[in-house]
Write a structure and sequence with these properties.
- The chain has one helix at about 30-35, and strands at about 5-10, 15, 45, 55, 70, 75-85, 100-105, 110-115, 130-135, 145-150.
- The protein has about 150 residues and is mostly beta strands.
- The protein has one domain (about 25-150).
- β1 and β2 form a beta hairpin.
- The longest helix has 7 residues, at about 30-35.
- Bound molecules: zinc ion (ZN).
- Zinc ion binds near residues 47, 49, 50, 61 and 66.
Amino acid sequence: MDRYTRVMKTDPLVKEFDYNIEYIHSYAQDSKFFTSLGMGILLGSECKKCNYRYGTYRKYCMFCGSETDDINLPLTGKIHSFTTCYYSGENFINETPYTLILVEFEGIDSLFMSRLVNKENKNVYIGMPVRAKFRRLQKFDVNDVYFVPA
Ligand SMILES: [Zn+2]
């Protein structure tokens, strides 16, 4: 396999080259969260002991260590906070700037981080109603769900 290599500077020597690896990642106990996204279900968790309700899926309570039960999160919520990202990793490099949001769900004690896709260019504000949408071609990552203005 030929690899692309380009010398950018000679003193000090700096070169650019492509770098690809096969990466195997296990979602382990979080697998159900990711597979559920393909069915249009956003899973959260509820602690069996202290009843804390998580907007971000987890199998064990961070307060008491007890195992949690799965709960279906509502597909609508409101923006708790947001930020605009002008730089990005590879996944969103063509979409910058984009908006990251923390979603607040009624009856849920913690927040869920996601992206706001705002094709209508509505002004984003704290408290803005949003609803979940799911990517049609599931890639089994956290970007299989995103939010739009409700
Ligand atoms: Zn607990």
